[in-house]
Design a protein that fits this description.
0% strand, mainly alpha, 206 residues, single chain, 2 helices
């Protein structure tokens, strides 16, 4: 009997330990499930944040791609502008060199003209008194010319009057000459008549 009771006690004492083990295992499983649930929750949050970040990055990549395309277009335009500006610069450089050559040719001419101008100024300064005297002489001559023109006008008037008088006198002289010729003719006729009368008187006296 005692042995049987001892064996029953030993067999009955296993279950509490087994229950404790199951309880502990269940607690561990529940803990693991909670940890797994929390891990899934946080992992979902992390993945959601990553998805949002990925979408944001994708948008940024798209924006950067668009900006890159615009930059490429701008770079192409800038390259064309650079080529055009380079061509313009070369043309401007050639024109500048040409103008520099022309300027180098014109500078001696300018210096010569300046020298001639200075000489002309000196000549003008030197001859200013002479020019003033000549201008005074010209003014005097002009006054004399005006006076002579006045005198000539008066003389022309007098000449016209004298010409009219002479013409009148010529007409008078012509009339006198005609009258003198008539008188001479009459005188000659009278002389002839007188000679005839004298001849007749002489014949009567004989």
């Amino acid at each position: 009997m005692p042995g049987t009771i001892r064996r029953r006690r030993q067999a009955f004492d296993i279950w509490p330990g087994f229950v404790d083990a199951l309880s502990a295992l269940l607690i561990i499983i529940i803990f693991l499930l909670m940890v797994f649930t929390l891990a899934q929750f946080f992992l979902g949050e992390i993945l959601s944040g990553r998805n949002q970040a990925l979408e944001r990055l994708n948008r940024q990549v798209a924006e950067l791609s668009e900006m890159l395309s615009l930059e490429r277009s701008a770079n192409a335009g800038l390259r064309e502008d650079i080529v055009r500006l380079t061509t313009d610069l070369q043309a401007s450089t050639a024109a500048r060199e040409q103008l520099s050559g022309q300027l180098a040719e014109l500078l001696p001419q300018r210096d010569a003209l300046q020298a001639e101008l200075e000489a002309a100024r000196e000549t003008i300064e030197t001859d200013r008194d002479k020019i003033a005297a000549q201008l005074s002489e010209i003014a005097r001559i002009n006054r004399d010319i005006k006076a002579l023109q006045t005198v000539r006008a008066e003389l022309e008037k007098k000449v016209s009057e004298l010409a009219a008088t002479i013409a009148e006198r010529d007409r008078s002289i012509t009339a006198l000459r005609d009258r003198s010729k008539e008188l001479e003719a009459k005188l000659s006729s009278e002389q002839e008549r007188t000679a005839l009368v004298q001849k007749e008187i002489g014949k009567k006296d004989l």
